[in-house]
Amino acid sequence: MSSLVESAKKAFTSATATEKVADLQRDIQTPQARDHLTTDHGVKVSDTDNWLKVIGTGPGKYNGPMLLEDQIGREKIHRFDHERIPERVVHARGAAAHGYFKVYDDRASKYSYAPVLTDSLRTTPVFVRFSTVQGPRGSADTARDVRGFAVKFYTEEGNWDIVGNDIPVFFIQDAIKFPDFVHAVKPEPQNEVPTGQSAHNNFWDFVGLQPESAHMVMWVMSDRGIPRSFRMMQGFGVNTYTLLNDRGERHFVKFHFIPELGVHSLLWDEALKISGQDPDFHRKDLNEAIENGAYPRWRFAIQTIPEDREHDFDFDILDATKLWPEELVPLEEIGELVLNRVVDEFFTETEQVAFCTSHVVPGIGFSDDPLLQGRNFSYFDTQITRLGVNFQELPINRPICPVLNHNRDGKARHRIVKSSINYWPNRKNIGMPVPAEKGGYIEYAQRLEGIKERARGDKFQEHFSHAQLFFNSLAPYEKIHLANAISFELSHCEDRVVYNSYIDVLNNIDFSLAKSVAGKVGADVPSQSGRRNHGKKGKGLSQTDFMPKEPTILSRRIAILVADGFNEVEMQAVRVALTSAKAVCYIIGPRRGHIHPSQDTGSGVSADHHFEGQRSTLFDAIYIPSGAEHVKALAKNGRVIHWLRETFGHCKPIAAVGEAVDFLRDVVQLPKVDLFAPGGRNDQVVSSYGVVSTGRYSAGSSIIADIPKFEA
Ligand code: HDE
């Protein structure tokens, strides 16, 4: 065996259960206290604060000119000048984490011989990057947008990438439309407005003229466009891939990730406010959950269709603007994805990770989905622009298995291959390396016949049936959110042609939806339905279909509002109960610092934030303990009253005890104050995510919780 193969094998076998993390250790530097600064060529640097310059020697020292000869100063500035690489042309803003993937058993072996999908003894390391699509790297996390959900599986047979989204369909059917779509949704060319939004003429102009977008637009305008957390989104491979089994049979397949915590969204008002209050809300949320041990988890499922049933459906199963209704093609859950480690350095991991839909492993293949085939070309190409031709050698991208071939050179090549042979076949024919006899990637022998033509298949011409299916399946309040979202966006389009054109599209989906949006945005209100709504509904389309099996407040953020004179015994009891249900509590007070309790109830707490330093939008629920003095102080604070009214308006739970209940009724004047019945349950904190039993505690007061309900 050549030393090259040996060294690659060694690197591979030394890998542990978290092979990729171990592999990355080779490149991780952890500076220790008092380590020396050096230049990039390794020479120690003793002064990094002063450029080499002429110091005048007249009476007193004075500054003369700086000298270009300062190679240390020059290196520092030159390196800085070249710190930026091109941001991703779409999905520029993202956050990522490490984790693992495991299948439950070998049930998928009837579809595929890929061990990553069938070997339950394996733990496959993964790196997952979530993103928004439209905005630049510095845009806000909570924009209304599609979210990217890209998973790199570091399998023993090579890297496999599912470059998916949180929505199961796409805007266009054919890759050749992608540049038009992206130009239309991105900021307009004359003024680079708007940032991180699709609420502008060009986007709605394009989708109005491109009815194949209708289905996807419905998803983005629904609550799916404003997720509460990356951890509470579904992930979809979107395109149709194929699986090949060891009998040589092929199935078409769609990939799904289903979040353990359920699918939850922000309200639009929250999303808008958080964009300003904490533009990093989602990336912080991801790290906070992992650091608190609330590891994000998804069940992994597949939908499969045997090859000979390809044409059995009234839609084309290779059309990415259509989903495969679960009633027709059930989901099979085969494994789980868990994220358990935050990144060490954003640039080298999250920014440099390079996903390619063309990265598949033996047993997994492509289909003739015309969007997927274009993507297979585009991603590799874009990585060469972003990172250079050797992008797969970067630590975050390199596989955990041996990589050996005759590809050579190019910018920033790292690997040193010690061999006189860089081609195949070679005269020595001793193999360094040779084509694999077993385990190589084998293309499925697919029979093809047809006419070369710039055209699309017949079933690709129908665009509204699945848009109707999605709309019909939403809960009443989800429909209202959707109509409001489209109305918001169209009211940002000044051109009447644009918003009238979109009303025509909506009228092909649902007459009442078209009328209600048209009425709001000043468009021509249609007098009759453009197309009959078929009235069918589907499973797994409304977010309400994804409530977790057991109600949970795991990783939910709870603000405890206190001022001097709060009842600490009671507050601590509630806090322990919430924390043991794995919620994350923050104490918010009039100042960040010590807050004094009421007499004899404790020694006080240190507030994490002051009332002005945070906003209610950043929390899932509020709890106010009892305590006469503290409630009196809260009542004098306009910001506190705003916190509570806003929380109530956003349909979030508020728990109050003793004097705090009167405060909510009399001072905050919550409209449904009769729900705060003093003397109510004292053993439970109720949240709209479920009921968490906290057990009895000694303070003797009652915890009263309200669940404000959204009413249409
Ligand atoms: Fe992408 N897409 N895309 N896309 N996409 C990119 O690749 C492209 C599409 C998706 O976290 C780019 O590395 C074409 C569908 C994600 O790094 C680029 C077409 C879906 C990410 C590109 C599509 C996606 C990208 C830009 C139509 C959901 C971020 C930077 C044929 C299934 C991955 C990059 C990450 C990124 C091209 C359509 C998801 C230019 C040509 C459909 C999650 O290559």
Automatic annotation (TrEMBL):
Cite the Pfam families for this sequence. Catalase, Catalase-rel, Catalase_C
Start and end of every Catalase core domain?
A: 38-432
EC class of this enzyme?
oxidoreductase
Question: Which cofactors are required for activity?
Answer: heme
What molecular functions are annotated in GO for this chain?
catalase activity; heme binding; metal ion binding
Q: Coiled coil located at which positions?
A: none
Q: Which GO terms describe its cellular component?
A: cytosol
* Catalysed transformations (reactions): 2 H2O2 = O2 + 2 H2O
Spell out the CDD domains in the cross-references.
GATase1_catalase
Its job = Occurs in almost all aerobically respiring organisms and serves to protect cells from the toxic effects of hydrogen peroxide. Catalyzes the degradation of hydrogen peroxide (H(2)O(2)) generated by peroxisomal oxidases to water and oxygen, thereby protecting cells from the toxic effects of hydrogen peroxide.
Could you tell me which PROSITE patterns the record lists for this protein? Answer: CATALASE_1, CATALASE_2, CATALASE_3
Q: What SMART domains is this protein classified in?
A: Catalase
Instruction: Give me any GO biological process, just one.
Output: response to oxidative stress
From which organism does this entry originate? Boletus edulis BED1
Locate the region Disordered.
Answer: 523-546
Q: What is this protein called?
A: Catalase
Lineage top rank: taxon:
Eukaryota
Family according to the record: Belongs to the catalase family.
Entry's EC annotation: 1.11.1.6
Q: Which UniProt keywords apply?
A: Heme, Hydrogen peroxide, Iron, Metal-binding, Oxidoreductase, Peroxidase
Catalytic-site annotation from UniProt: 91, 165
Tell me the residue numbers annotated for binding heme. 379
